[in-house]
Amino acid sequence: MNRKELAKYIDHTNLKPTATEKDIITLCEEANEYGFASVCVNPRYVEVAKHHLNEMESKVKVACVIGFPLGENAQEMKAMEAVFAAQAGADELDMVISISAVKNKDYEYVYEEVKRVVDCTNIPVKAIIEICKLTDEEIVKACEVCMDAGVKFVKTSTGFAESGATQEAVKLMADTVAGVCEVKASGGIKTLENMYDMICAGATRIGTSSGVSIMNEFDSKKSKN
Question: Catalytic residues, which ones?
């Protein structure tokens, strides 16, 4: 895999509650410089990110989180948040599903809330299922329901729970969706080795706040070969 191909896997992420506008501008500049797939930001910063990427005539997309980080607000609110994000310039939506609904085995609710967000915009949706909260059986069922609702990706984690992506869960998710949708791995991916592990397991997108250091690690290893 060459440098450009590697960079295209990365959603360059800053979802910290302490992130400043300057931090988001830096995020956009880094994403543009390295050629990342997107910047992933909170709703209030979608317009800022879009504006600065447009100023740079960048091809980097803006991804916005929905129902973040717990996923427990009402589905109507998630839909409203999705519409707001779209109007502000978001190109992709990373939506946290209701984990309590999965635990209740209320998969009809999960389908309805995801479908509502998918249908209210024309923007690709990544459904975050927070794997550390779920059993393997629940991971499989959540992936199946989200896939049926029309998501572009199923995603491992918010990065705000007690743990994030694992190779085992990514492989389970990839096997479950079987190419009908894609898998995004996120949470705890900080090194080039971490990233390669997730790609080998079946991830086609990587969410990380360590994109720059991962690319620098790649460059360093290439220069030594």
Answer: 94, 155, 184
Q: Is the peptide bond before 17 cis (omega within 30 degrees of 0)?
A: no
For the domain made up of 68-224, the CATH class stated in words is alpha beta
Residue pLDDT, tens place only, 50-74:
999 999 999 999 999 999 999 999 9
DSSP assignment of 60-128, as one string?
-EEEEEESTTT--S-HHHHHHHHHHHHHHT-SEEEEEP-HHHHHTT-HHHHHHHHHHHHHHSSS-EEEE
Distance between CA atoms of residues 169 and 26, nearest Å? 32
What is the predicted pLDDT for the residue at 225? 67
Q: Which residue has the tokens 């809330």?
A: 113
Handedness of CA 104, 126, 11, 205 (dihedral sign): positive
Instruction: Please give the radius of gyration of the chain, using alpha carbons only, rounded to the nearest integer.
Output: 17
* Contact predicate 60/85, CB 8 Å: no
Q: Which residues sit opposite 154 in a β-bridge?
A: 127, 183
User: What is the β-pairing status of strands 182-186 and 92-96?
Assistant: unpaired
Q: What whole-number distance in Å separates Cα of residue 60 and Cα of residue 28?
A: 8
Residue whose entry in the numeric block shows the structure tokens 């450009």: 4
Q: Cα–Cα–Cα angle for 20, 41, 18, nearest 5°? A: 30
46/179 Cα distance (integer angstroms): 29
Tens of pLDDT along 109-142?
Answer: 999 999 999 999 999 999 999 999 999 999 999 9
Residue 11, classed as helix, strand or coil, is strand
